[in-house]
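Re: beginner question about structure tokens

> Can someone show what the tokenized structure looks like for a real chain? I only ever see the sequence side.

Sure, here's an example I had lying around. Input first:
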Amino acid sequence: MKPSLPLFVRTALMIALGIALPFAFHGIPNAGRIFLPMHIPAILAGLLFGPLSGLLTGAITPLLSSLLTGMPPLAPVPIAVQMSVELAIFGLLAGVLYRVLRQNLVLSLIVAVFGGRFAYSVITLAFFPLVGLRPAPLGVVFGAALTMAVPGLLLQFVAIPAVVLAYEKLYPTKARKRNTAQ
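And the corresponding structure tokens:
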């Protein structure tokens, strides 16, 4: 059985979730940076609906959220742009790897998360001169990006597999049926 909604509608729903989910964390100071709630829909879109859906969800969500809610900000530091790149990489990698690695969910998630955090580190370094900061070593920025996000990464490693497995139980794919039949 396949979901009856077209891909663009499922992607739009993930974008809407990416805008709405952070509101659950707004009562906690810096919760967005710590728990990374906007990341979850981008990764889910890639895993569940494919690389294009993940890429679009990741690229559009932070920018649209910034325009609608002011978060993440576009100025003085363009965090929405940084996140747009990061989340697009998350969604794209999750979607590609999940298919290439024959639905190895954990490995796909780990590589996508590290790839997205690496992209975030690179784009952060690119913005340093624009905001008057001296460049730092990429390893330092990447390490800080990972360290700061540990609670969010833990949340992702718990929530995302649970959602993907539940979804695939409801809507099994041909590849998943073949893998479980062997």
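Each token stands for a local structural state, so reading them left to right follows the chain. The first helix runs from residue 7 to 20.
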